Amino acid sequence: MQTLGCTLLAYAQATCLPDAFLKNLGLSESYRGGLAVRIPYRDANGGEPAVRFRTALHKGEQDDNRFRWKSGSKPLLYGLWRLRSESSVVIVEGESDCQTLWYHGINAVGLPGAGIWNESRDAPHLSSFELIYVVLEPDQGGQSMLQWVGKSGLRDRIRLVRLHGFKDPSALHVADPTLFQGRWQTALEQAVPWHSVAAQQQDIARDEAWASCRDLATEPDILSRFAADLHRAGAVGVEREAKLIFLAVTSRVLDRPISIAVKGPSSAGKSFLVEMVLSFFSSSSFYALTAMSERALAYGEEPLKHRMLVLYEAEGMSGDTASYLIRSLLSEGCVRYETVEKTPQGLQARLIEREGPTGLIVTTTRDGLHPENETRLISLTLADGQEQTRAILDALAQEDRRDEVDRSSWHALQDWIAASDAQVVIPFARNLVALIPPIAVRLRRDTKLLLNLIRAHVLLHRSTRESDETGQVIATLQDYKAIHALVAGYMAEGVQASVPTTVRETVLVVAEIAHRDGSSTAQKVADTLKLDKSAASRRCQTAEKRGYIRNEETARGRPARYVIADPLPAERDILPHPDLLLATLGEHELREAGCTVAVEPEGYSSPPPCPGEELHASGCTVAAQTKGYRPRPPSPDTALGRERRRIVL
Question: What is the average per-residue pLDDT within 128-141?
Answer without folding.
Answer: 92
